[in-house]
Specification:
Strand order of the largest sheet: 15-14-13-16-17
Number of strands: 17
Shape: globular
CATH topology of the largest domain: Rossmann fold
Number of helices: 15
CATH class of the largest domain: Alpha Beta
Number of domains: 4
Largest sheet: 5 strands, antiparallel
Strand content: 15-25%
CATH architecture of the largest domain: 3-Layer(aba) Sandwich
Structural class: alpha+beta
Radius of gyration: 26 Å
Helix content: 25-40%
Length: 392
Amino acid sequence: MGFAWQTQHSMSVTSLLTCVRVGFGIPVRVCVNGSRRRQKYSAVPIGKQCLNLGARWLLSRASWNALDSMKPRFSLKLLRVVSIVLTVHDHKNCLKCSKRSRFAYPLSQGEYMDICLIMDNPETPHHPVIAVALQQLSTTHTVRLLDVRTLTGAEAIAQEKIHVLADLYLLKSHAPQALDVAYFLEQHGALVVNSWASSSVCQDRVRMAQRMLEANLPWPQTRSFATLENLLADSHLLASLPFPLIIKSRYSHRGDLVDKVHNVEQLQALAAHWSREPVVLQEFIAGDGWDIKLWVIDERIFAARRRTPLEADASKEDFPIASKEIPGRWIGIVLELARAFNLRLYGVDLLITERGPIIVDINSFPGFRGVPGADHALVDLVERLLRETKTL
């Protein structure tokens, strides 16, 4: 039987190391990051009986608090009970076992955790909301960046392998190489937010439409084509299209295709630049000229109105909606969407139509630019997730 135990706890470093060295004669390595002292442990393969005697008792926070408050001679006796259970290793030894189960404790004052932001834009750390959140988190935790914009998926994975797994990864980038490294990290036991699976679905408008249908959520009728060129090659289909239509790139990315077309000629004009682009066609649904922008951070909902982008006089100015004025139906839709897609950080675009609210887009981990209070909500979510990882 074997398992890996990685944790940071509130017990005095000096008292723990003294007891271990004096009681067991085991050499100890302390990994220091700046002025922040962190301990990580892994257990050697042991029998179930020994595990029940010592390790399971130590896995309760109460036991550590009690041990820390005892006189050295009593804590020494208690530590001897588990002398055959625990061997202290450095970070590299822990990493070998990190794919297996991880046990830890709730956060306590002065306890540092590792947070990694996965990004592909050099401006991300300076984003008004992200920058404030990272700055606040860095006062109590170790925060580092993984920039994948110049890396392939394999290179990003190789770069991350030199580190011990972070306690939490924030997947801000949705580039293919970022999704590759997120998948790798999850396979090795890391917590990634939003998850690789959730983020991947939100990048594919065909899978997104399928998930909407399964969850019975309001979404425009959607049809996909391998390329725009293939669509234009089907004359019978073109003759039956119910214009106007919305045409979009199948895969969401910066600068992707989103346009309203009124006839075949407009489709042909788009083919000059997008002929090889996988596309979807969606029914055009008339709204009231406004998009409802909803941002959700751990079920905290922020809302604003913005002119529909396809309107001639559209601007990007947001007109905030007070939280108490957000209709219950909108709230129900976005929270049901979170359950269907397993999202914690996301944005939703709604159209208000004669058929009711219709979802027209989802963004996994948007920037929350201009959303008052989003930075504090993001910090609160990260802190809660870190506490939860320590109680697993």
